[in-house]
Every structure is written in C-alpha cells, then in structure tokens.
Design brief:
2 copies of one chain form a homodimer. Chain A is of the alpha/beta class. Chain A folds into 3 domains: about 5-75, Arc Repressor Mutant, subunit A (Orthogonal Bundle); about 105-110 and about 360-460, Aspartate Aminotransferase, domain 1, CATH 3.90.1150.10; about 135-350, 3-Layer(aba) Sandwich (Aspartate Aminotransferase, domain 2). Chain A contains 15 helices and 16 strands. Chain A has an 8-stranded mixed beta sheet. A 4-stranded antiparallel beta sheet of chain A has the order 12-13-16-15, covered by helices on one side. The model of chain A is unreliable at about 85-90 (pLDDT under 50).
Amino acid sequence: MLIYDFQKREKEPLYEFLYRCIKEDILSGRLKAGTRLPSKRELARDNGISVRTVLGAYEQLIVEGYLTAKEKRGYFVAEVEASPVRRSPVPEFPPMYQEDQWFVDFTSNTVMCEQFPFSTWRKVMREVLSNGGQELVRRADFIGVKELRQTIASYLYRTRGMEVSPECIVIGAGIEYLYERLIRILPRDAIYGMENPGYRKIPRIYEDAGLTWRCIGMDENGISMESLIASQADVIHVSPEHHYPLGTVTSATRRQELLNWAGEKADRYIIEDDYDCEFRYRSRSIPALQSMDRRHRVIYMNTFSKTLAPSIRISYMILPEKLMARYIKTTNFYSNTVGSCEQYALARFIQQGYFERHISRLKKRYFTLGQLLIQTLRQSTLLPISEIRGGESGTHLLVRVDTSLTDVEIKWGARQQGICLSCLSEFLQETAPEYEHILVLQYADLDENTMQEAVRRLGNIFTQW
Amino acid sequence: MLIYDFQKREKEPLYEFLYRCIKEDILSGRLKAGTRLPSKRELARDNGISVRTVLGAYEQLIVEGYLTAKEKRGYFVAEVEASPVRRSPVPEFPPMYQEDQWFVDFTSNTVMCEQFPFSTWRKVMREVLSNGGQELVRRADFIGVKELRQTIASYLYRTRGMEVSPECIVIGAGIEYLYERLIRILPRDAIYGMENPGYRKIPRIYEDAGLTWRCIGMDENGISMESLIASQADVIHVSPEHHYPLGTVTSATRRQELLNWAGEKADRYIIEDDYDCEFRYRSRSIPALQSMDRRHRVIYMNTFSKTLAPSIRISYMILPEKLMARYIKTTNFYSNTVGSCEQYALARFIQQGYFERHISRLKKRYFTLGQLLIQTLRQSTLLPISEIRGGESGTHLLVRVDTSLTDVEIKWGARQQGICLSCLSEFLQETAPEYEHILVLQYADLDENTMQEAVRRLGNIFTQW
C-alpha cells in the first residue's frame, strides 16, 4: 500500500503533490525498478483522493519515463538511477565576475553617460513603438533593417562623401561580432596582418578564431609597406583615418600604395577600421580608403557604440559587392543580431538630424576636454613630461615621461592611485625602447571636475618611488 | 598660375571649394607629382581670396597627403596615383537579397505579429527609458545585464524548478551567437554529435566553424545510446523536452543514461536545447537535463526570440561553473551583444508577470490552432493522409501521406501553390524510407482564416499530378 501525507502539500494541486511524492520515492530508491504500483483505483481509495488525480500523476510519471504502463497488467517503476544526494535548494551564488572600480579610467574610450542624448533617444524610441507595426515583430533581414542601412548609406554620403549601396551594408551587434562573420567569408588560409602597435582586441579575435596573423610596423605615413610585404599578410586591419594609439593619419600616397598592394593578388583584402573618424577637430575628415577603392578590396567598419553609447550594440560593415554575394550565400541562415526596435530608432535618430547634432556637441566637448587636459598636464609640477601628442583628433593623448620607472611600475603606481592606465608599450607585440615611457590617456570618459585630481594622482606615481 | 572658377562653388565654404579643385587636379594628373604650387600669398592674390582660405585648403591637402610642405621652399604635389576614371555618383543599387513571399509558410516557427504584446512591451520600454540612468548607457557586463540574469534565474526556478545561479547565465543576441561563443570554450578537437533527424541550423554552424561532427540516430526514447557510442562524439546537441521535428520526449531513463555517458569521460558535454519547453499543453513540462546534472556537463540553452518575437534578439545559455570560469577568462574582452535597454525591458516584462501571461495566452492559442489544423486536415478529401502526429506540444504536426510523389515533388508542388513546406526527409543527413512522405507543418505563424485555403492548396499538390 502506498500512502502519502496529503496534509503536507500546502497549495500544490493534489495530482502534482502525488506525482512529486512518487517521483521522490523512485529517485531515492524506496520504490525499486520493476515494482508494480497500486492500481489507480486502489491508490485513490487508500489516500482518499479521486481516480482522476491518480491518473494525472501516473500520466505525468509515464511521460517523464519514471513509470511504464503495461496493458492489462498495470503500472511499473522504470529503470531510473537512484540519487540519494539532493542538491541544496536555491543556493547562495557568489559573483564570479566583477569589473574593477576606478577613480579615473584612462583606458575607457566610451562616451560619458551624461553626454547620452536621453531625451531625444527616448522620444525617438517612443515614436517607433507607437507607429510601428509588423516590422517591429517580424524577423529582420539577416543583414539588418533596410531602413537603417539606407539611412547609414545617405549619412555616409552626406558626411564622408562615400558612395555606398545599402545592399552592401551589414548591421551587427558590435564590431567583434561582425569581424567573426567576416572572417568566415575571407579565404580560410589567409594570413592576417595587424598594425603594431595597434588595437589589442583584434589579435585576440584572431587568436580566438585560430587564425594565423603577423605584426606590421608603422611609420609616419601609416602602416609600413616594407613591413607589410615582409609579413606576407593577405588581409590587413588598418585604421588610416586615425591610428590607435599612435594617432597617425595615413597619407594619400600610402593609401594608394595600400590599394595597389591589395590589387596585386586575387585574395588580398583591407579591413578599414574607421572608428573615430567623427572626431577630427581642426581639419576635415580624410576620404576613406573605401571611397578610393576601385578593385573591391576594402571592407569598411564602423560602430555607433562609441559615438552614442556602449550599451547600444549597433555596428556595421560595408562589403565589396563580390564579398557581399558570398556573405549572402553563406550566412543567410543566421539571424541578424540587433533588435529591430533599436535599428528603427537609430534610423529615425539619424534621419531627424539628432545624430549629427549629437556628434557636433561631442566634438566640441572632446576638443575642449583634450585642450584642458593638455593644459592641466603641462601645469603639473610633479609630472616629468617631455612630450604631449594628440588633441587634434580622437579622444586620447600620448604623454612621454622622463622616468627611470618601467612601464609596469608606472601602471602599478597608477593602480595604487585608483587610476587605470595603459602605456604605449602594451599595444606592441614586442616592446621597443622608443615606445617606452609613453602614457596613453583616453579622456572621453573624463570630466572637468576630476581632471585636476586625476593629474595630481598621475604625478604621485613619479614622486612616491 | 593656378586660377579656379569660384562662381561654381555654390554654398561650399571657399577653402573647401579650393581644396576640392586642387585635389581633383592632382588626381586627374593635371598637377603632376613634384610640381611646386604657388605660395599662399600668390594663390590668394590670383584668385581674389584670403591667405587664410588658401592656408585652410593647403593644410587639408597636407593632412591627406596630396601636398607636402618643405620648409622655406614651399608646397609640392605629392606622389599620388592619378585616377582618370571617376565613379558615377550615387549609383542605383539593385537589391542583392530578397526573402520569398508565400501564401502560407509552413516552415516558419515564429510567433504571429498579431500575438506580440505591443501595449505592454511599449509600456515597459517607456518605464525603462524614463526611470533609467547610467545603467542604460554604460557598457553592460559582458555576460549580460545582471538584473535580467537574476530575473531569468527566478523565472526558471518558478516555472521549471531549475536551480540556476545568475552568475552562470550568459545573455547573447541569439542562440547561433551563443553557440559560436560556446564552441570556443569547449575542447578544440571535440567531435560534435547531432540528432538525426534534427534542427538543420546546428550542422550548418558546425560546418561554418570547421568542426568535426557526426549524426546520431533517434529511437522512441530520445537519442539512441548505441548510435551515440558508435559516433564517438564528445559533445552532443539534444532537445530532450521536445525533439524537432519528431516530437520525441526523451524518457527519464534515457536522460540518466545520457548524463552517465557524459560523466564517463572528462571532456564530454551535453548541449540541451530547451527551445519549445514552454509549449506543452496537456502534461507538465519535464524537468530539464540541466536540473538532473550532478557532474556539471550540461549546457542549457533557450531563447526569447521564439516566445516573444523574432525581432527581439535575446537568448541565453547556462554554463556549468567550471565552464563559466573558463568563459569569463577567455571571453571577457568581448562586449555583450544585446542592447541594455532591451535587457532591462525584458527583465521588467518578466518581473511584472507579463511574460507568463503572454506564454499562457500563446499556449491556449497554439493548442487550439493545432487541434483546428488536425481537424481541417482530416476533413480534407484531397489529402491522402495516413497518419497525423503532434498537437500535444510544440507548434508543428507530422503528417504522413500515401503518395507516389517523391518528397522533392511534394515540395515543388507546394511551391506552385504558394506554400513553403518541409518534408521530414530534409531534416536527415541520409534519407531513409521510413522518414519519407511525411510533411512537417509548422503552424505558429498560421491563422484561422487562411487555414482552410492552405489545406485546400496542400490537397492540390496530390491531385494535380
């Protein structure tokens, strides 16, 4: 006879309580495999419940494989491994990952929260949600919402003089994601070339994807052609508009050389990272490699995560037609990774001129901030500065210091001061003396009020040792 | 002497017009490399413009590398490749990719637009945007917004009895994206095993990532243990709750066998695809493999793209602690791929009970729709149906037909009728006679009004030949 204490069941439905009790008996080994269970009628009578309740519990146990029903013979316990140890209920979970907290983070290149155009973004989002219909719910084109692609194409034409087909733009959730998709349509055995020094995420993506890659040195005109040729790279990642962290602008001559290099062999490509092109303060932006490319070898990449907010994950790449055809053929089974609402909201935000106004506000701010930082650094009596570079574009300065400290000691000293800091040498694959003792100070995330104190703390690094 | 027609400049600033004219002359070859340009003063006088205007143009040309300035000697045209051919301005771009249009698409497994809870989603989104602060702008944790992870953990506890740490949940823009991230932390030389028949995107992801994979046969209890062992797979993808397209529910015994199999060797893992677990109409959902896993070998995956809207790209995976530690270590330089606003909105949507209400509405609808489709199919005089399976869970039926047509002919016939259709044989790696002549009818996207006509057209396939 199988009797359970139905007083214990609290608010659970009867059949569920019964189901749970029997299951626990099976799992704990109290009901052994092969045991015949009481008939529905018997169990109902013994426990003072209805036959329907028993049937509900038995059926669930059958579906889950704890019982088997044999016609005209009854219900039997199935072969299930007993598990005497129960896991503790809802355990306490300590955090496995936490980001560091800093007084100032000179490595953050993202816009300050205060600069985010909340009210217009909210307005635009509300409009999209109010006017939107099916297109907000339906699966978007796998290359992204058409309206946004068209808007980006005309934005690029207006602001960068680029003639781009919306059909060749791919929207994705971040440059890293797009990069991984891109790698899949480039020749599998390609050797990748990376600026050295350069943006550190790129080699990590290469490593992560198991690709072969080489470093290519820089000179004052951009990536060095000599080093490029020596590297035997097929696909190179460059930032001609504004190299990070050196700040180098690739000259027109070098741009042509790069395009010629790409044209020499069938499977050579240039990935143009145009990140930062919006922030040039004194002169106009320089035409993108993409606009000069007549051989369909340039892949252009940019993102809104830097200009708008790091929490908005919308980036895009522009593919040459032939690559786009390959992309469509091989990748169309993937879904687009950006939510449609945000894509429509961004399209509207650009169309209504909010984006350009926002950029122009940011430009003013970044220019002023950069000048102020230069001035504050120069006034510091503690900092052994020998040279400051930057301020005409982008959002970082290079500050060379005269010190006997190593770069590791500088970084460690900064950490003691609550300051997160990079040195130029960290952007290099192998260190070189001319790249040592240079601080890379990102100021996009800095504010005027903490600047004095930040610089004072920077000075402390060099006096406390 | 260099004279330009300043009448032509329209609204352009003077310096920009001058810059453009000189640049065009350089690119067209009219100004040859090495040519010395007039001094600023000369050019200003000759064209009746200010020296400052000339300086502006020259400086821009220098930055772009078209000119070089030699101290005390003047400005010289740099070595730039001439380009006699100009690209046509803003060309017409024909669409490169378009999705097919169907009268009914029996392969679409996404919710109908009409079912999307627009008003509550809008409300929640508005609340997030109005109350939100820094957290909406700041870079989210790379594993996703904490509030959403916590909300998912308690949702899973409430509805599936799962005890999951929010610290082991990773939010990402779609299952496909998460899958690719996951692959990177699993052993590089692992052999992947895939249900056969099975969800077709999975082997495409494997192929795309260059992985080795094998097919594993199914029996009535789930994936076949014999076939699994023969396959020598290390990592298997299974859908124990509701196999697609067979509809098989993996029995409790088989679940234990799978967990035992995984426990036998150090690097064996089970990827549990719990997609569809929400849609079980008659019995309760069966506990997930993840809840039964005591050896930390189960990776659980689910998505909101199916339950909420395909345009909302929010999916998640739950990793065993050890894998999570590896994920944090190797992947923390990637940014999270989902916009923060939507993550907060979804968290709120679940917390306020809207999600569960939405699911329960959908369940009712899908159940009714399934029953109606079964009835309509049975009433069809044209369809040579011999068996219908499904309707108790999920959103598709398997319909076996008695016909001399091949599956390819059936599919082609459907296409003629404006109907997109899959046959079960398409989900197999190698076809087998017992899997032929079975239509897979997804009805999530169907509506009552077109059902009669859809079934009539299905019937036409078999009469017109």
